[in-house]
Structures are given as structure tokens and as C-alpha cells.
Description:
Nucleotidyltransferase, domain 5; 6 helices
Amino acid sequence: MPLKQVQRRIEEFLCNGEAMWKIRSPKAGKARILVGHHLHPLLQSLHLQYPSFMIRDTAAYPPLMKTNKLSNSLKYLTQTYLGYDIQAGVQDPYEDCVATMRLYLRMRNQVHQREDYPQASDPRNRNNFAPSRQSELERMSPEAMLAISRETTYAIKETLLPYGYGWE
């Protein structure tokens, strides 16, 4: 099946009969919420653009990133939050889909506090090394780097947090 035809079928399903331009507003009537794990690369590979407020990506949901501040694998999230193993041996897409939906259903009704994730440019980030100072960082000894680090040091892509924190 040609890519254009695949794109059209996926858009028809997600938009549920509405035009794509109509669902760009938060009052997207009949459009479907897209639930998945690591959806951004999949949507990119299909050259699809879907409104971020209609996407629930378990890899980018901050309460599920509490242990790592980066996205965790679906296998880890399923074991941690649902209590069973997936992807033992062969990876089954259906099993992954069911696990993702169970994670979503478990997390969507919980009240989540918004956590403060300062960006690299935030003045509160006292260890902000500009690219021009990269060589200075590379010359530092491990002990010196440990001395300037802090327990809450983490990296987050700005693109991981495009939508709200509460899943409805």
C-alpha cells in the first residue's frame, strides 16, 4: 500500500470524519485521542502531524518518568505500574498495545501535580554550560564534575512536554 494511502486511512480513522483543520483547536469534537508509547518517531516516519493535545504518549508523560526523568521502556513501565512482564522472548505488537492502553487507563484519572522541569536556559539551572564552554567541561576531572553536579541533574527534551499533564 502506498504511503499516501496509509496516511489518508490513518487520518480518516483518527479524525473520525472531521477535517484535520477542525481538530487543531482544543474543542475537537469527534476526533480520537491517540494513545501509544514513543509516538513522535512513528508519526514522523509516517509524515503525519496530529495535534499534541490529542496525543497521550506514555513515554513522554511526566508522572511515568519519575524514576528516570527520561522516558522508560514500555517493558519497564508495565512491570513497575501494572505488575506483569511483557516482551519476554518475542515482542508482540498486540501485547504492547494492550499494555500501553492499560497504563493510560490507570494513569488518566489520577490527579497529578505539575512538577517544575527547568530548561537548560533557566537561570535557576546553575550548571548551565553554553556550547562555547564545552571544551572547559571536557577538561574537567570526574571529581570536579561530581562536585558541580547535583542530585536532581537530568535532561529532558522540550518536545517531550508539549501537552498538559492531566490525562482526560
